[in-house]
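Deliverable D5.2: sample structural annotation.
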Amino acid sequence: MPGIKDFIQQNILLPRLKKEGVLVVYDPEERYRDLCLELGDGSVSVIDAGGGSIPGREKALETFNRIGYQKTDLDGMLVYVPASAPRSEEDKQKDPFSIYTECGQVFPDSEADRFLYICLKAKPDFTTEIRRIFEENQDPSFDVIDAVGSGTNWPTLQALLKVDSANDILFALLAPKAEQQAALKENEAWVSEAKALFKACLGLKLKTRGKTWSSIADELWRFLLFSEFVFDLPEALPESLADVPRAPDAARPLVEDLCERLRNDNRTQADYIDRAESIENELDLQARCRSLKDLGRRDTFPFEERTFFSNAIDALIQDEMDTVRAVLSKRVHSVWCGKGESQAQWDLLRSALSLYETCDDLERQLPAYTRSFDALIDFYINVQREADRLQREFEQAVSGIFDTHVMDDVIDKVRSKYRCLSAKSHDCFIRHLESNGWPPIGRMAHTEIFDQKLAPKLKDAGSKIAFILVDSLRYELGVALEKEISENDPVELQPAFAQLPTTTLVGMASLLPGADKSLYLQKTDSGLLPVLESAALSNVNQRMDVLRSKYGQRFMEQTLKDFVKSRKKPPETVSLIVLRSVEIDSYLETEPDTALRMVQDTLKRIRVAINKLKMLDFQEVIIATDHGFLLNPHTEAGDVCAKPIGDFTVVHNRFVLGSGQADNANFLLPAEQLGIRGDFSQAGGPRGLVPYRAGTIYFHGGASLQECVLPVLSIKLKKEAAAPQKPTIKLTYKNNAKRITTRLPVVDVVLERQQQQLFGSSEDVEILLEAHDKKGNVVGEAKPGGDVNPVTGTVTLKPNERIQVAMKMDLEFEGKFTIKAINPTTMAVYCTIELETDYTV
């Protein structure tokens, strides 16, 4: 049996260190100093803060930064502080090491970390002896504790289950492996021994007369989980539950340790969820505990997790953001995230908090950047676009929940906050637009992109360049795309400023050669028609003909989707290939509530296309768009604008061209002042972020930062290095179950550690998770949020780190399917699992 020192290292300190990567040990008696220092090895850095805090502070900060920026091979750091842990906020401000407790783990953390309780947990068979020793000496040495107990106490159980300690025996009886369960079924000789064990270690006197494992396990599970619930309860237990059997206080360390093991062990987690739900219903806990205000820190039962969630919602509505953060931090590793529905709701709450606090912060910063047009634009490009990203991710999280009823108030509050920030910024934008015109002076106009970025390079005979045109790629999406692409190839992101009105017809025409000098908007019976050097540009074929006539056999065009799927190589003569994607705009126009998933699909195709272009010896890729967009799910009465009086053509419900009079609701300027050449003397639009048609959720066409500030990405393609070896990835579902009973099943994903040289300088591996039917159609995808990148839908795995990913299945699909872990760049399949739906209607 391991000594108490080894028990503390292996069962208490190292698990906490592994969980967060940072652990602070406060030890005024210096009882744990030597065992902490012994943990320092090649993978763990131990900082001894004794003998003066300044060297310790410097080393801790240096190590923390190295770990945070992943500039080290360390798995974590342990800070040993020979002083008492700070208790009050004031004490924490004085303590130079308390910062690490906020982003890591701390020891001791609770009453269960007292040395007495640690000893009881380490030697549950000898509770009486341990307590006697502590009554005589409050600070016994490790040697005294190690001397307690010897010999075999439960020989039959130890032989059958092939484990030694009472803790491991109890764990095996709660959740036996297949071979252990088979051994228990062979005879009943172990039952009397188990009863004695339960009585000695847990104070449980079995009531069941059954001698089968299942009947005994049912009672043991109920006793154990209810005991943990009571131990964690700060309030008095309701009288209706007073007679339910539970463990004495002396057994608390063992009870809590067993429950933690059951929740955290991959093999037993699904069983824990099922047992806890069943016991909660059997004891009617939700109804009987309705009057309780404080349920403690642990969520043993699902109704507690729901209560914590409800409390967090109430706190956010009441602007108690510190409370929301505290609740969220404790729920990150909750066992109930193993249920897809719970994980989705917590992800939505986390996204709501991020968006709300970011908008709140940006509202405070905004006044300092409103004095000039350039300052406002730079504020949006560098800072405010982050609110757009968080809003898109928030709306993705909303669409990922099948029933948002419990969060309606939160959703409305957060949407209103984003709308408030956007409205304040937009008011300033329109004022500067009226004073300065458009596009802003000294910045790249949208119509200059081709002539500046592509035309000079196409003069070189050996150049091969791709022009990817993505409909409705607003600036924040360009930032996200830059981040993803830059991991493999150098990328330059530059803002361009849209041609008004911000529609697809005008925006795509603006991306043609010569557009800056020759694009003209002609008035027609149906509205307007872009014309370039007398060539009408009413559709995509006419736009592509402009390039075809200029570059001949050097030019080729294709949809992005077809290019990714095609195995046919472009002709050798091609040096300019145009790839077109319209999915984001098309879906947002027709299905704005659910279409944000197309953002992921489009950006996924772009990455695959870039990899394919690299293989085809293209040297550069330019990515541009026609316009940005606004999302306004928070529509209210009056969220519509009447067009100004006069002879106007309304363009896409956000812009007018013609002649007439401005009013309080509309701005109106000479067309040339807004950079428009054409048959129209005036141009304008709503002063607010509203359209000319009521009920519009997704809109563009008008003048706003979100519609007019556009990304241009220039990517230099590097020659592909030798292909890395295939990583070993393991997918499992509910301890190898084969049927899913929910449309949000949670899959366990693990990247098994390989030798470092297999993956170059970084061991992390990025994957896509998709569910395919037997025909290869995608019928489910990883739900964005949490560990799933909301932009790309990918998951980044670290060696031996287990991640739980909720898969969002298509509502219409039922039947057999395959979940695949896929390389997002090459679309090669790493591994698969076969599953089948078994929904309860």
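Annotation notes: Residues 755-761 have pLDDT under 50 and may be disordered. Residues 522 and 679 are 5 Å apart (CA to CA).
The annotation will be released with the project's public dataset once the embargo ends.
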